[in-house]
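Example: Glycerol-3-phosphate acyltransferase.
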Amino acid sequence: MNICGLCLVAGGYILGSVSPSYIFYRKKRGGDIREAGDGNPGAANVAASFGSAPGFIIAFLDYCKGIIPVFAARMLGVGDFYLILTGIATVAGHDYSIFLKFKGGKGTMTSLGVLSFFLPFETVLAFSAWLLLHFGLKTRFIGAVITFLLVPFFTWLISCRLVGEPLYYILLPLGILALFLTRMTENIGSFFKKS
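Written out as structure tokens, the predicted fold is:
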């Protein structure tokens, strides 16, 4: 058992549980961001309440929150197994925050932070598709769903098949995809009901 690896996984979850949007909203308005706007403690809800600049800052903090634990895992050399677990735990912390009674955000930017560190090329390709779909469909979350579906495919195609990385590399984007779909079921259901 790798104690350092387990500490990183736990640390990733705890850091992921820290919600910049919740803290910002609490400081500015003294309330709970989950009771405002769309009810999601994330950058989009901050932007809707305070403008694009604060929303961008929160998005950046959530993105960095995804990078920091996996970067620490890489620097400490715990190996890919614990790095993957740390990345998934960080996103799980954002989605099911221990500080917010396990009611967190959707995890989009934190997921992108984790993925862009571990799978930079595949994430850039998938994110490019997201941008095209966002401006084409004018629906942010559908573009995000397709992005997180594409990252495992690009990982299998590029990292595993072309580069020759181990097949277990796909576990990180698949784990993040599972978390993302779990948090987006209501949005997806509403979208198809309107279609």
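The chain has a mean pLDDT of 89.
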